[in-house]
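TA notes, week 10

Several of you asked for a full example with nothing omitted. So below is the full record: structure tokens for the whole chain, then the designed sequence directly under it. When grading your own attempts, check the secondary structure regions first.
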């Protein structure tokens, strides 16, 4: 079976031309990018004036290409398919830059998983959106344990609180905390925003200025493998966190998602446990490329409840209001693999698009968490042995 992304569909003239454009763009920038020995600022400046792009864009493209060269497996994929445009390549570099100087073995692990994530496994698969690619990369770096001594030193040197001017009379605030603190703050802000019907930024400002209080009880929903020693965990609405942070969050209630996967209900309304499984499997709305978090989506009965469709993970998919409407209006429909949650969307004009679930319970992510957990457990054991001897 030939596997390919829709952006590379060999039978689609638009996809073929777009691929050729991406390829030429990629080859062009690879050829003209400043060499490592060149004066970087001047080279980017002259490239910018000659191409009409901004200096910033020219710098971002250049950095993205050097970053890709550090990821040989991902680069090999790109140079086979030419499927990644510069906005996605820049995203890869931007997220990995957060790690600073990355040890070779960390880069190798990230490259392996990124290449696996980006390899199409079905014909007509939809390329991950920039947002979902960023989420994936954030997950990859979240589970990398930096050397803590080094990290503390960096924290002391760089103030992680700063303000910056923005456009239209606005200004920004950037702060950094340890994961656990940020998760708690984020939950409080989200709750307060919901409670007072405000945007999150407004809620944060009013909380800090003492104008409102969040009295809501904060509940964290964490997905984590229970049978694995150093498993990373996924916090709903936040993303992946490291095993160390997860170890320090003590659940007040646990539910078994393996059982939830198999549960069925007579009711039309999805019971919370089945809903938690569907959200954990899907991650986001199942319309290819949509980024709406699954917890804000409706649970669509693939086969109508009135036609005997079960209220169970195997017959429910997360769809945001907008894409639920498209399905209800009959412009597209889907079939779903009940075991993996994979979905094929079928359109009126005969085209199809293939969508994989993105959540922590999706088979690919469960496998990844297993691999990461094993690697981290092995690293912990090796460190302990060094300390003991
Ligand atoms: Zn959607």
């Amino acid at each position: 079976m030939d596997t390919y992304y829709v952006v590379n569909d060999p039978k689609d003239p638009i996809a073929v031309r777009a691929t050729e454009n991406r390829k030429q763009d990629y080859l062009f920038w690879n050829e003209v990018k400043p060499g490592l020995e060149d004066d970087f600022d001047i080279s980017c400046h002259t490239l910018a004036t000659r191409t009409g792009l901004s200096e910033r864009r020219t710098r971002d493209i250049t950095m993205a290409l050097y970053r890709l060269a550090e990821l040989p497996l991902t680069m090999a994929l790109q140079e086979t398919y030419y499927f990644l445009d510069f906005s996605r390549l820049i995203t890869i570099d931007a997220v990995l830059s957060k790690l600073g100087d990355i040890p070779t073995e960390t880069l190798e692990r990230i490259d392996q998983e990124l290449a696996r994530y980006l390899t199409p496994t079905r014909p007509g698969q939809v390329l991950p959106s920039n947002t979902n690619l960023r989420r994936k990369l954030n997950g990859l770096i979240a589970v990398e344990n930096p050397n803590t001594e080094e990290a503390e030193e960096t924290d002391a040197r760089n103030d992680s609180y700063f303000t910056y001017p923005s456009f239209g009379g606005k200004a920004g605030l950037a702060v950094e905390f340890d994961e656990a603190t940020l998760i708690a703050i984020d939950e409080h802000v989200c709750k307060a925003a919901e409670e007072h019907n405000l945007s999150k930024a407004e809620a944060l400002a009013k909380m800090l200025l003492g104008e409102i209080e969040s009295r809501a009880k904060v509940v964290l929903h964490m997905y984590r493998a229970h049978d694995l020693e150093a498993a990373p965990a996924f916090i709903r609405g936040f993303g992946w966190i490291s095993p160390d942070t997860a170890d320090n969050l003590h659940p007040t209630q646990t539910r078994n998602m393996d059982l939830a996967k198999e549960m069925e209900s007579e009711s039309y309304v999805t019971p919370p446990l089945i809903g938690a499984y569907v959200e954990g499997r899907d991650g986001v709305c199942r319309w290819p490329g949509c980024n709406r978090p699954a917890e804000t989506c409706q649970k669509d009965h693939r086969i109508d409840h009135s036609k005997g469709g079960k209220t169970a993970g195997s017959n429910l998919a997360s769809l945001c209001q907008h894409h639920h409407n498209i399905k209800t209006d009959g412009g597209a429909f889907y079939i779903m693999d009940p075991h993996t949650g994979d979905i094929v969307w079928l359109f009126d004009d005969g085209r199809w698009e293939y969508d994989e679930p993105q959540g922590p319970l999706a088979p690919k992510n469960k496998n990844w968490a297993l691999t990461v957990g094993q690697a981290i457990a092995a690293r912990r054991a090796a460190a302990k042995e060094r300390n003991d001897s």
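The chain has a mean pLDDT of 89. Use that as a sanity check on your answer.
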